[in-house]
Specification:
Number of domains: 1
Number of helices: 12
Oligomer: single chain
Shape: globular
Helix content: over 70%
Radius of gyration: 19 Å
Distance between the termini: 43 Å
Strand content: under 5%
Number of strands: 0
Length: 291
């Protein structure tokens, strides 16, 4: 998980650099093309099939996942690096908010006050991050970055649903990548078209695709064999890595409000992950009740 977090942060650096040469749609398309080729080759190497019994579920996962990816890449191009990554990492807060909303809609369930505290803490952190770093033209990038976290939470929920349906993670990533190729190409054609390539741009595109795909594989392995809460906590190291990259490479400003906001978001995310794990453990210990 530590290696995956470092690779995702490094990929974000490449995205920020490549955004000077390519549109967001192009970055998504090329990143997804490399991912689809790598995952398809890996499946063939392992003798696995890419045929699926639930194409509709993959289509929905690809739709929300690609939407999140487009928004995240767009935010990276216009915001300090650590700010964009932190906003994308609000997915745990959004999932906690979904749990609260579900309790309210069902009516019979008591709202967990601890979940409410984590959500409020997380959004307080977001407010601290956005206030000193986002002004005028950056405000739109900030809102898009926050929405990327919302769509990422929907994508994670759909990945869990596909897992329960028996779909291997490699197949899920492959169809997500295919969705990114299609969506990126359509958006690029409808937008400014495809920009010409040069050596620096090609190297950045290759780095984005390889880093993202390897990071996804490492993260998948971590969640398959590690403890969920430990993984969820270590994942937030990506914010620290991005913060260092931003200061060293892009001269991003260091303010106490931004740092405090990042710490609040991390605390909220770890707290939400802990409460979700605790709830799953309690549910698994409940006795079976015969009808």
């Amino acid at each position: 998980m530590v290696a995956a977090s470092l690779l995702f942060a490094t990929m974000s650096v490449c995205v920020k650099l490549a955004s000077e040469y390519y549109s967001t749609a192009e970055l998504v398309m090329y990143r997804s093309t490399i991912g689809a080729v790598m995952m398809g080759a890996l499946a063939l190497w392992n003798g696995q099939t890419l045929r699926t019994r639930v194409p509709g579920m993959h289509a929905w996962r690809a739709a929300v996942g690609v939407a999140s990816l487009c928004m995240w890449f767009y935010a990276i191009g216009g915001l300090p690096l650590a700010t964009a990554i932190t906003l994308n990492y609000t997915s745990s807060m959004w999932m906690a908010l979904f749990l609260i909303g579900g309790a309210v809609l069902l009516g019979g369930q008591r709202i967990d006050a601890r979940l409410l505290v984590t959500v409020l803490m997380g959004f307080a952190g977001v407010a601290l991050i956005l206030r000193p770093t986002i002004e005028h033209e950056q405000l739109w990038h900030g809102m898009v970055g926050l929405l990327s976290g919302l769509f990422a939470s929907l994508a994670y929920l759909q990945v869990a649903t596909l897992g329960r349906a028996g779909e291997p993670e490699g197949r899920v990533v492959f169809y997500f990548s295919v969705g990114g190729v299609v969506a990126g190409l359509v958006l690029a054609v409808l937008g400014d078209g495809l920009h010409p390539h040069h050596l620096r741009g090609l190297l950045l595109l290759l780095a984005i695709g390889v880093l993202a795909t390897v990071a996804q594989l490492l993260m998948t392995r971590a969640y398959n064999f590690g403890r969920p809460l430990v993984n969820a906590s270590l994942q937030y190291l990506g914010i620290a890595f991005a913060f260092i990259y931003g200061v060293v490479l892009f001269d991003d400003p260091v303010t106490w409000m931004a740092v405090a906001g990042m710490l609040l978001v991390v605390a909220a995310g770890v707290g939400a992950a802990s409460l979700r794990q605790h709830r799953v453990a309690e549910t698994s210990r409940l006795p079976d009740i015969e009808p």
